[in-house]
Specification:
138 residues; ten-stranded mixed beta sheet; 1 helix; 10 strands; 54% strand; globular
Length: 138
């Protein structure tokens, strides 16, 4: 956890100067027991070129993946996705029922803020603090 926290501090200062994507409203929904936590945020692309979010990592998760919820023929499902395009000048929201981060084996406490690195298609990463909320999102 210390290694990622230090990397978070270093990348936060770098990301603030040169990040192609601004990330806001970042939070995890923590569920009881060993259930996975869902991660949500908004990503605004400030450049004139498309950028994709290609992955995420955090010491607060045993495994952290990008998923997309869907409803096909009345059946709700979830699929892992390799990347989410944030179009030039565009906004993409990771929200319940859509794109989200799936945190398997979460190690987080409600009320805490946990560091997450979002990996981008240009090879850069953005350090983001995710607020941990309860099952109702509060």
């Amino acid at each position: 956890m210390k290694r990622l926290s230090l990397m978070f501090l270093v990348l936060t200062s770098v990301a603030a100067q040169a990040a192609p994507v601004d990330v806001t409203d970042a939070w995890f929904r923590s569920l009881p027991g060993v259930l996975p936590a869902g991660g949500y945020f908004a990503a605004q692309n400030n450049t004139r070129r498309d950028v994709s979010i290609t992955g995420a990592s955090s010491d607060a998760c045993g495994m952290l993946m990008i998923h997309q919820s869907s409803n096909k023929g009345g059946m709700t499902g979830m699929d892992m996705v390799e990347r989410v395009k944030v179009p030039a000048g565009g906004l993409v929201k990771f929200s319940p029922g859509g794109y989200h981060l799936m945190c398997e084996h979460p190690r987080m406490k409600i009320g805490a803020k946990v560091p997450v690195l979002l990996h981008l298609s240009d090879g850069s990463a953005i350090a983001v603090g995710f607020q941990v909320r309860n099952a109702s999102g509060r």
